[in-house]
Structures are given as structure tokens and as C-alpha cells.
Specification:
By secondary structure, the protein is of the alpha+beta class.
Length: 631
């Protein structure tokens, strides 16, 4: 057996430790290769697809490539820590420093080669499916046909082989700088009881509470100004949480006899503080990376929801016509005829209503306020099946369509309720109530009065005109095409909801698609970090439980202890990340004054379910390895 065969077999013997590293690296290569398929797709290169999409994918590929460098470097560093005893044995048998570095170099190159080849192969298998998914998410008119991506294969293969080569050289250099005596005795040296400062533990709680409190307290534009300080405070608090507070809490539980001496809790908490202290930096990194993934995907998804749902809520009608203030009746009539002509041309069945909108002075408002008679309001309400309003004589109802905020931070309805409607005879009508309605006649709110009361308002300060069409029958393509023609041919005086949503989704699709991929890469890598740390310490755990089993530890008790310990170590950073992500998305919702509860729950819930499934797999492998050695 030559040296290269020895390195190859060494990888196979350590497949339990290498498998997560290999699969994560392969997944990263696959994602990079996917972006390369898009980047070199003929539909993009020929210029028929939005150039922003290709630019975004290029940037995303670069981010993934840079992140892969640090991910692989960290993974290999973890492997070196877990193989101290092996290196010490090789030194004892006569292996030189150069040979050990060469062995590590060859192992990493071998794994890198197969991970790169495997990632490209899997990418080719699923390429057509990914192209079909992207075609819908990116909302492009052209078809992303499958092609054999020769250039993408070459770029991906060369890039990652170069990356693994650089990592291999760097890791071999790091190994050389370590003292070999530490490699032999490192796993036998006593670390002593981990110490935790009560002052730093309290500081961690204070920093997290202060960061969370600030993020949840501020509203509107203030969220942007406090964002950086909150991120710094919470990040620092998270680091102290894992390095100090977690160890301090475990020590408190160990001092509590009712907890520590109960059943197998002594085994659970016995060295948990050591493992929490040793893995503190890993847990901190996993928590921060997972938080970035949660927040990025949740923000992108939430912002898209904010844009699309907000537009739909503010503009409930399929098409809305708002002429310029100086347009004559003749121009308005011509526009209406042209709009109806385009709608008929696309064979869309609609209902239409139009009305003259009058603005009057009120007792407190400096500017004029829209006052609508009930009959006009009810006609527009019928278009969208909204509840009708029937105010009594000398009664005014405030209608608010959205949560619009005006000067002073007050809602339009709050100001309109403090004002009053003045009749021509000098009588003032106080508004009786506020009604939330989708009837969009006024952006910031308006009054609805009885028809007879409306005639007593006198001469309006100014008048406007509006018309609305609501579809009865027509598919999405017809609505979008009609909207495109209307906004182009009627001098941008028509707002077409479906067409505008289509344009928003078309522009936002690449961002969401890219963000989702990057977030998934970060999340998978975070899970892999946890896997590495758990299995790095498994040899020591086996020796510990072998000794304890000799004095009567049963297999069921062992399973219980290991399951609890693995769950604590696995979920500690994930739970912290979920809390961080929930606070971040709540702050985002307060920034836009838009409820993102559903979107946040969907994103965080999805990742939590994925992490639970990942934990079940890791736990099964871990427990199986420990039990097989002990019993």
C-alpha cells in the first residue's frame, strides 16, 4: 500500500466524520453550479431576459463561493482537532511532519474532487426541474429550455478544485505550525472546571433584553436608525450567552441537589458545562449564521408580501382611472372610450362606475377634504361587494381605507374625527364614527354624507373625476395585457392592479430566488457545523459511557442521557437564532407598519421543521455509534 492509497483508505475509515462535510460541500457546489447554469443560459446571454437577474445571480454565486471557502476551512480545522490522537500515533510510528501534512492535503483534495464532481452531477440531474421552477419564480416570458452547460461545468469544476487546493495548502500550513507534542497529548490534558462570571452572565441578559426591547419598541423610520446598534448589542450578548451565561446556568443546576441528583441528571450535567464552553464559539457562529438566513429569507418574503398585498388592498378595483386636474370633459370622455375599447379588445367582461369627487373646506383642516354622497359611495362599494353606508341626515361618517399616516404621526381618521363638516347655512355636522372600507375614493380618508345633506354643502373648493372597472370574467394573461396597454396608451392615468403586481413580481422574482438559495446554503452549513462539533467529541463520549456502563448504566438510561445531551447541544443555537429571527422580522413589520406574523411564522416554522428532521437523523447516527461501542 503506497502513501496515496493510505490517504484514500483513511478517508473511508473516517467516513462518519467526513460524510456531513462531504454532503454539505457537494450541496454548495450544486447551488453554485445552478447559478452557473443560469449565468451561461442562452436566454440570458442573448439579452432576452432581464440583465438584473443575471447580475444578481453572478453576485450570489460569488457570495456562495466566498462563504464556501470559510465553511471548508472551518470544517477541516474541526477534523484536525478530532484527529489529534491519530496524528500522535503516526508520529510515534515514525511519520514525519511533512508526511502528515501531505496526508491531510491528499485527503482534502480527494474529498474536494468527489464533492465537486458529485455536486455537478446532481445539478445536471435536476437542472431541468430547477429551470422550470426558476422560469415561474423569475416570471420571464421566454422559456428556459434545457441545454448541456459545458461552460458552467468547466467554471464550477475549475473554481472549486482551485478552492479545495487553496484550503488544503492552508490547512497543511496550519497543521505545521502546531506543536506535535500537543497533537499527542491534547486530548488527555485536563481542562479544569469551566468558570463563568456572574457579572458577564448578567451583562448577557441585559444586552439581549436591551436589544430586543429597542427593536420591538421603535416604529417607522426609527427602526433603520437603531438597526446597527441593536445588531451589535445582540451579537455581543449572544456571544456572552454561550461563553458565560450557559455555563453559569449549568453550574447553578449542578448545585441544586433536587435537580442534579435526580435519576440520570448527574450524567447529563456532569460534563455539559465543559461541552458548552468548548463549543461556545461554534454555537455562537451557528446562531448568527442561522439568524442571517432566517432574517434574509423572512425579510425578502415579507417585503414581497408587503408590496403585493398592500397594492391589492389599496387598489381593490381591476382598473382605476384618475385624469389630470387640468383635463377637460372632452379629454376625459375620450379616455373613457379608449379604456373601454381596450378592455373589449382583450375580451374582458367588467362592471364600471364613475363619479365626480368634490373637495370642501372643513372647520379645522387647512387643506380641502373629500366629501362623498352616499349614493356614489354605495355604487363603488357594490363593485367589490363592500358593505354599503346609509348615513342619516346631518350625519357624517369617516371612511378610512388604509393605515395611512400623515404629519404628526396621526391617522387620517383621527384628524377627520376631530373636524366637522360645514354646511352652506353655517351649520356644522360632527362625524359620528369611523368605518374601515376598501372603497378607494380617497387615499388618506374622506367623509360620506347623506345625499340630501350633500346638496347643502355649497360650492366645492375643487372637483375631480374618477372611474373604476372591476372584472367579472377574464384570465390573468388578459388582465395583464390589457393593463399594459392601458398604462401605455392612456398617458399613465390608469392604474392596472394585475399588471403592476406582475411587474413587481417580475422585478422581485430574481431577488427572492437568489436570497432563498443563499439562505438555504447558510442554513445547511449551520446544521453541518453542529454535526461536526457533536461528532468531534464522540470518541471521548464513548470512553466515558464505557466506564459508566461497567457500574450498572443500562442501555435505556444511556439512550435517555445521550438524547437529552444531544438535543441541548443541537437546539441551543437554533432556538436562539429563531428568537433573534422572530424579533428581527417583528421589527421589520413595525418599520413598514404591516403585519408580517403569517410570513414570519411560515419562514421560521419551515426552518424549525427542517432542523427537527435534521436532528432526528443526527441523533440516530450518534446514539447508534455510542451504543454500538458501549454495549
Amino acid at each position: 500500500m503506497n502513501f496515496r492509497q493510505f490517504a484514500f483508505r483513511n478517508v473511508l475509515r473516517n467516513k462518519r466524520l467526513y460524510i456531513a462535510y462531504f454532503l454539505s460541500s457537494m450541496f454548495t457546489v450544486m447551488v453554485f453550479f445552478t447559478f452557473a447554469i443560469f449565468a451561461f443560459h442562452p436566454a440570458f446571454s442573448e439579452g432576452s431576459v432581464n440583465k438584473y437577474a443575471i447580475f444578481g445571480m453572478t453576485v450570489a454565486g460569488g457570495i456562495i463561493y466566498i462563504f464556501s471557502f470559510f465553511f471548508i476551512l472551518y470544517s477541516m480545522s474541526s477534523f484536525l482537532q478530532s484527529r489529534k490522537k491519530e496524528f500522535g500515533l503516526l508520529i510515534t510510528l515514525g511519520a514525519s511532519d511533512k508526511q502528515i501534512r501531505l496526508m491531510v492535503f491528499l485527503e482534502n483534495i480527494l474529498i474536494g474532487f468527489f464533492a465537486t464532481a458529485g455536486g455537478i452531477l446532481i445539478g445536471l440531474v435536476f437542472a431541468k426541474s430547477i429551470l422550470l421552477i426558476a422560469e415561474n419564480i423569475l416570471i420571464i416570458d421566454e422559456s428556459l429550455d434545457f441545454y448541456f452547460p459545458v461552460l458552467a461545468i468547466v467554471v464550477t469544476f475549475v473554481s472549486f478544485i482551485f478552492l479545495f487546493f487553496c484550503i488544503s495548502v492552508l490547512v497543511a500550513f496550519i497543521l505545521r505550525t502546531n506543536k506535535l507534542v500537543d497533537l499527542i497529548k491534547g486530548d488527555k490534558q485536563s481542562k479544569g472546571e469551566p468558570k463563568a462570571s456572574i457579572i458577564l452572565s448578567i451583562l448577557a441578559v441585559f444586552l439581549l433584553i436591551a436589544g430586543y426591547g429597542t427593536a420591538l419598541y421603535v416604529k417607522g423610520a426609527s427602526v433603520v436608525f437603531v438597526m446597527i446598534p441593536v445588531i451589535i448589542v445582540v451579537t455581543l450578548g449572544t456571544y456572552i450567552l454561550f461563553t458565560q451565561l450557559s455555563v453559569y446556568c449549568i453550574r447553578l443546576m449542578k448545585k441544586n441537589k433536587s435537580i442534579f441528583w435526580r435519576k440520570t441528571n448527574m450524567l447529563l450535567f456532569g460534563d455539559l458545562s465543559f461541552r458548552m464552553k468548548d463549543n461556545a464559539r461554534t454555537f455562537f457562529m451557528v446562531a448568527i449564521i442561522s439568524t442571517v438566513a432566517f432574517s434574509a429569507i423572512g425579510s425578502l418574503y415579507g417585503f414581497q408580501s408587503y408590496l403585493t398585498k398592500g397594492i391589492k388592498e389599496i387598489n381593490p378595483y381591476t382598473y382605476t382611472y384618475s385624469p389630470f386636474l387640468d383635463d377637460s370633459e372632452e379629454i376625459i370622455e375620450q379616455d373613457i372610450q379608449q379604456i373601454n375599447s381596450i378592455i373589449d379588445e382583450e375580451k374582458i367582461d367588467t362592471e364600471m362606475e364613475e363619479a365626480e369627487l368634490a373637495y370642501f373646506d372643513t372647520t379645522t383642516e387647512e387643506s380641502s377634504v373629500l366629501i362623498v354622497k352616499a349614493s356614489d359611495y354605495n355604487r363603488f362599494a357594490a363593485l367589490i361587494s363592500e358593505k354599503e353606508l346609509h348615513p342619516e341626515e346631518n350625519e357624517a361618517i369617516v371612511v378610512e381605507q388604509s393605515d395611512a399616516v400623515i404629519t404628526g404621526g396621526q391617522k387620517a381618521s383621527d384628524i377627520l374625527m376631530t373636524s366637522s363638516v360645514q354646511l352652506e347655512n353655517g351649520q356644522e355636522i360632527q362625524p359620528s364614527k369611523t368605518v374601515e372600507s376598501a372603497v378607494g375614493l380617497g387615499i388618506t380618508g374622506y367623509y360620506v354624507v347623506n345625499d340630501s345633506t350633500y346638496t347643502e354643502l355649497g360650492t366645492p373648493k375643487r372637483t375631480d373625476f374618477t372611474a373604476a372597472w372591476n372584472v367579472l370574467d377574464g384570465n390573468d394573461n388578459q388582465l395583464i395585457e390589457a393593463g399594459r396597454k392601458l398604462e401605455d396608451q392612456v398617458e399613465h392615468k390608469v392604474f392596472a392592479v394585475d399588471y403592476n403586481l406582475y411587474e413587481i413580481n417580475k422585478a422581485y422574482g430574481p431577488i427572492l430566488f437568489i436570497g432563498l438559495f443563499i439562505g438555504i446554503v447558510f442554513f445547511v452549513s449551520a446544521g453541518s457545523f453542529l454535526y461536526f462539533r457533536l461528532f468531534t467529541d464522540i470518541d471521548g463520549e464513548k470512553r466515558k459511557f464505557q466506564s459508566i456502563a461497567k457500574i450498572g448504566l443500562t442501555q435505556s438510561e444511556l439512550k435517555k442521557v445521550v438524547n437529552r445531551q444531544v438535543a441541548i447541544l443541537f437546539f441551543s443555537p437554533i432556538v436562539v437564532a429563531l428568537v433573534h429571527g422572530a424579533v428581527a422580522l417583528t421589527a421589520l413589520s413595525r418599520l413598514f407598519n404591516y403585519n408580517l406574523t403569517l410570513e414570519s411564522a411560515l419562514v421560521l416554522g419551515s426552518f424549525a421543521v427542517i432542523q427537527v428532521l435534521y436532528f432526528l437523523v443526527v441523533r440516530f447516527i450518534y446514539v447508534k455509534n455510542v451504543i454500538r461501542t458501549v454495549f
